[in-house]
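@channel sequence for tomorrow's demo:
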Amino acid sequence: MRVIIQDNYDKMSKWAAEYIAARINGHKEARPFVLGLPTGSSPIGVYRELIKMNREGRVSFRNVVTFNMDEYVGLPEDHDQSYHYFMHDNFFGHLTDMKPENINILDGMAADPEEECRKYEEKIASYGGIDLFMGGIGVDGHLAFNEPYTSLTSRTGVRLLTEDTRIVNSRFFGNDPDKVPAKALSVGIGTVTDSREVLVLISGHNKARALAATVEGGVSQKWTCSALQLHQNAIIACDEAACGELTVDTYKYFLDIEKAERL
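structure tokens (generated this afternoon):
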């Protein structure tokens, strides 16, 4: 596991965007580069940087296929809190060369949610798997909508959202947790960790315990983010504010090892 520590959120976002762009630009295979994407506040800075790079001609999305992590059950695509809406408003709608047919987001209005999830897994497999999955985590360490105690080998499926998650997300629903859907469709932990690379963004003091659990804790269903410890190509990009619960030795180790990488 690599842990990239940046001074602040903006620098963390810039580092992650440049890393993703380099992976896309370095992809020489005929098949598309397959990119997994999250929603929420964590990736907004990365999306802004990638949009800027795309408009400046520094990265093209012409040969990129995307799969989003999740979607609320019961929200139509045009609902302003659906993740379809979020992704087009914050990212896809601003790119110069993203092909609409290459965008994949789970359908929260599907008549058969389980079948929708099964087909999503099949479609990922049809592209040869995901090359790089970017994600964020919640304050309780959940990755996508895989709440604590979700199986670490889980696949895409229907997830019940905890009260804590609905309270946190209520800021987007007029601060009313009852307006937050109780269910979501989400990729599984196994879906994410099957990716060739995983890049997780962790920022802010409120994510400090989750970062420590991801990096220093034992692998446990209580902290689904801890599954990243078992991935050969997992990267955590974080800011200083999120490092408050790391031990000094851990913090210094990752700073030192990245400094050595640059020499």
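heads up for whoever presents: The longest strand covers residues 197-202.
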